Amino acid sequence: MSGVQTIQVTEEDGEQRLDRWLRKRFPHVSQVAIEKLCRTGQLRVDGGRVKGATRVQPGQEIRIPPMPEPGPARERSERPLGPQVNHADEQMIQEAVLWKDDHIIALNKPPGLPSQGGSGLGGRHVDGLTTALMFGYKERPKLVHRLDKDTSGILLLARTDRIARALSEAFRLRSTRKIYWAAVAGVPHPRMGTIRYGLVKGGHRGGDEKMIAVHPRDIDKTEGAKRATTDYAVLDALGTRTSWCALVPITGRTHQLRAHMAELGHPIVGDGKYGGSGQENLGDGWGAQLGGEISKKLHLHARSLTFDHPITKKRITLTAPLAEHMSRTWKSLGWHENDVPADPFAEDE
Fold it and tell me: N- to C-terminal Cα distance for the chain?
């Protein structure tokens, strides 16, 4: 065992998650062990308690408790770089690759697959399948943002630490543009607008976590509430029963789009957490239920993502085809992907 160490984050390290920073120095220490060190207060940043997902920055000092020594060199060389992936999952995640170059991989994430592991999410997730996405590189690609488990669509991974830092900064500075498609209950009025309700955790834990909307006038006096902004536009509608909406999260809060649409009175179809059959809706009160197969899965899809490439500096826009269950819904409702503008919020030139 090593003794207690205090290590300073360097400029070369850049800004990154604490657990990833630690795993580079102690690759033999498991994620479970890191989370335990955080939970018990043994791992600290600038003297304060932290979580594995806490982002560390150059200049910060990290207190590291005594760590176990790695096993024999032979064992280390034979240990895989990440979780082993079975053939079916390898094929699935590789078929999800939407676009890639020497620096970035873009997935069309299937619904039902978590971005990362966590309480109640099990061990099968995108981050755990990245050994199947190395494509000749020595290190696994790294997630730079996340999608909810049941949300499908574009998810970016960086193939090097340098690109991960650059893309993470782009998301933090909101220089990227994400457009989601959703089927929602009823038809929002007006048909284009902005939702500015704040969001605060509702006190649930793990997979049951739910966000509560807070009126803009009450945000500053509500403990833990964070400002959140979503633009929406109705693209098509089936009478007054359901509509196809484009959603742009100006901020990136947990469950933001789902909570905002529910607060507007138009929950996303198939959203049992924010829009089950008990939710009142502007109209006849049937919530997010359309009946049959349609209501059994969340109808939220990260349709397009626009960003500046960190190396080429070109502005890139990627578009992801609808997930299978949403494609069936669009067909049954008579909605066609090519009938709407790629960005309904863009000003006419």
Answer: 65
Q: Tell me the sheet residues that pair with 236.
A: 244
CA angle 145, 147, 149 (to 5 degrees): 140
> Containing domain of residue 34, as a range?
5-68
Please say if 271 is a catalytic residue: no
Catalytic one among 148, 161, 231, 339?
148
| Tens-place pLDDT, residues 60-93 | 999 998 887 775 544 444 445 556 788 899 999 9
Domain end residue (candidates: 111, 138, 173): 173
Residue where one domain finishes, among candidates 116, 138, 173: 173
The residues, ordered by sequence, that sit 6+ positions from 113 with a Cβ below 8 Å of its Cβ are 124, 125, 126, 149
How is residue 232 written in tokens? 């929406």
Q: Phi and psi for 205 in degrees, rounded to 5?
A: -120, 160
pTM equals 0.75
